[in-house]
Specification:
This protein has three helices and eleven strands; from the N terminus they run H-H-E-E-E-E-E-E-H-E-E-E-E-E. It is an alpha+beta fold.
Length: 172
């Protein structure tokens, strides 16, 4: 009970919102993606806990659902790491009112401004994946949108192919 109280106090002091619910669907999606990334690029790691310094976004900080990096890139980085080694960030949409602005507008802009080469949005509302690449200032020059079930090839420097059929299992 005391650890729950500590977590709530910490989240309140950081201005975060706590969500409680029966589903771990975003976690399942990240596990699926981790397995795919590691099987094709074993020298990389999909980190699902590391916060990043990203310029002007929400006080210069973002905590993506996943950051694809060389396996020891965040060793000793602390809570908010330099995003320089990040090859790709991943966001999985949630079913809340803030997801449209946060995952489809604010974060792509922040990640592009930061120079992160690839932003993968797994959009469970639209049942599609969006691959943003070629960052240029505050936007990505290339955005490829494909429905769940299609093969997606993530551009270099990622170079991973994904069969997105399993994503159909994690939508409402």
């Amino acid at each position: 009970m005391s650890s729950l109280m500590v977590s709530i106090s910490l989240s309140e002091s950081l201005g975060a919102r706590l969500k409680f619910g029966p589903t771990r669907t975003p976690g399942c999606v990240i596990q699926w993606l981790t397995r795919n990334c590691l099987s094709q690029r074993p020298e990389l790691w999909l980190d699902s806990r590391q916060g990043l310094g990203v310029g002007r976004h929400r006080e210069g900080r973002a905590r993506p659902d996943g950051s694809l990096v060389p396996s020891h890139a965040f060793a000793g980085a602390g809570e908010w790491a330099d995003p320089a080694p990040v090859l790709m960030v991943v966001e999985v949409t949630s079913y809340d009112s803030d997801t449209d602005r946060r995952d489809r507008v604010d974060k792509p802009r922040a990640y592009a401004e930061t120079g992160i080469p690839v932003y993968l949005l797994i959009d469970r509302d639209a049942c599609e994946v969006k691959v943003h690449s070629r960052p240029d200032g505050g936007r990505y020059e290339t955005v490829q949108t494909l429905p769940f079930g299609k093969e997606v090839v993530l551009p270099e420097p990622v170079g991973i192919g994904l069969d997105t059929e399993p994503l159909k299992n994690w939508v409402r």
